[in-house]
Amino acid sequence: xxxxxxxxxxxxxxxxxxxxxxxxxxxxxxxxxxxxxxxxxxxxxxxxxxxxxxxxxxxxxxxxxxxxxxxxxxxxxxxxxxxxxxxxxxxxxxxxxxxxxxxxxxxxxxxxxxxxxxxxxxxxxxxxxxxxxxxxxxxxxxxxxxxxxxxxxxxxxxxxxxxxxxxxxxxxxxxxxxxxxxxxxxxxxxxxxxxxxxxxxxxxxxxxxxxxxxxxxxxxxxxxxxxxxxxxxxxxxxxxxxxxxxxxxxxxxxxxxxxxxxxxxxxxxxxxxxxxxxxxxxxxxxxxxxxxxxxxxxxxxxxxxxxxxxxxxxxxxxxxxxxxxxxxxxxxxxxxxxxxxxxxxxxxxxxxxxxxxxxxxxxxxxxxxxxxxxxxxxxxxxxxxxxxxxxxxxxxxxxxxxxxxxxxxxxxxxxxxxxxxxxxxxxxxxxxxxxxxxxxxxxxxxxxxxxxxxxxxxxxxxxx
Length: 464
Ligand SMILES: C[S@@+](CC[C@H](N)C(=O)[O-])C[C@H]1O[C@@H](n2cnc3c(N)ncnc32)[C@H](O)[C@@H]1O
Ligand code: SF4
Fold this sequence. Notes:
The structure is a single chain. By secondary structure, this protein is α/β, with parallel strands linked by helices. It folds into two domains: 1-41 and 392-464, no CATH class; 52-318, Aldolase class I (TIM Barrel, Alpha-Beta Barrel). Helix content is 41%, strand content 17%. Helix 1 crosses helix 20 (450-457) and helix 5 (136-149) runs parallel beside helix 7 (171-180). The longest helix has 23 residues, at 92-114. The protein is globular. The two termini are 36 Å apart. Residues 75, 78-79, 82, 84, 86, 128-130, 163, 188 line the site of iron/sulfur cluster.
């Protein structure tokens, strides 16, 4: 690979101890959502708009296996804590059919630009927002177009998301998803306290609603069922959290995923300062213990726990992305796409409106807002940051992608994490230890590109 040269900001080096401390200080933003503040830290790699199509076509050349993510920006309500691209629910009805037309048009643009029919999907997620909000007919026509545009790898499992309310109230839609071929379904439970849910702007109908949702998911024939829970909210006690985990366990899902609240860019950004790192560390530990006791396992630091041996619990799309850094194309509002050296964000993530996305497609342009052509140090930082979803780095995948071992590439960070007992070898992986999990925000920062480390060292603690 002919990598782009790094900017001067990305050739700096900082003492690992300082970077580690800066990550800990900035624990609300030093996480897997990388890069941080891309408008500033990545500005030197910005691709001019006129070059988007040419750069994308060149970057995708030679990529045979890939993931596909399709974003559905509709929800029944907008939860205060949500970090995703969701449009004003009052306009859903006006937009839904039109939006699916646009998705199909965007796919058609890529079909032509990238000759997608020659490429193989190894993972395909429909996410949101709430994809289950959409009418089943719209999801079906999307799926038909995707099947017509790509080859599907044998055994590749497609995944979709729902809220408990939709799963409880619309069993026929959940059954239709299963019949279309979706094998994994993920449902956001988040919290199980009525008063906390209310403060978060989230509907919660009590445990009976969750039970009905679960029964409908099972009746539809889903055998790969995931529940999302969230911790780290201001006003959420450890006892509340324990209760949420226990209720989720009663539902008997195959997988449970724990999300620590990320405040950046959300309506709750001002609450971040009220949440101590020690509390969230304790919450993770409490959940870990309860889940392990119930037979759900995950390597240290991983957020998805599975009770199925040999199944990591995540969608194929996410697993391939995280472990192997498999390139993915994101379609829809605000969706992100990654090749080995380019990173692109679609229009709409900031404005949360569809019009700018629609205008690009109407003009026959791919609806990208920002595209970056990354040097190796930035691409590696993205790969490793995302790898921490699964608690560490697959060394072979790193070497295949970047042409050097992680040890050669990080000659200061890796000795630091080993000497301090933060990471350890586990087979061919370099994984977080329990001490590393407790100090995860410091560890992850050690692998960030220098421009992002400088941003943290300058104490980027303002979240918003
Ligand atoms: C796209 S949402 C999923 C599904 C569905 N709309 C729902 O809410 O049930 C994916 C998951 O991301 C998590 N999430 C949302 N906002 C978050 C935030 N600010 N920080 C961390 N996780 C978040 C939630 O657990 C949510 O279930
Ligand atoms: S958490 Fe789910 S339901 Fe709530 S706004 Fe975000 S995507 Fe929509």
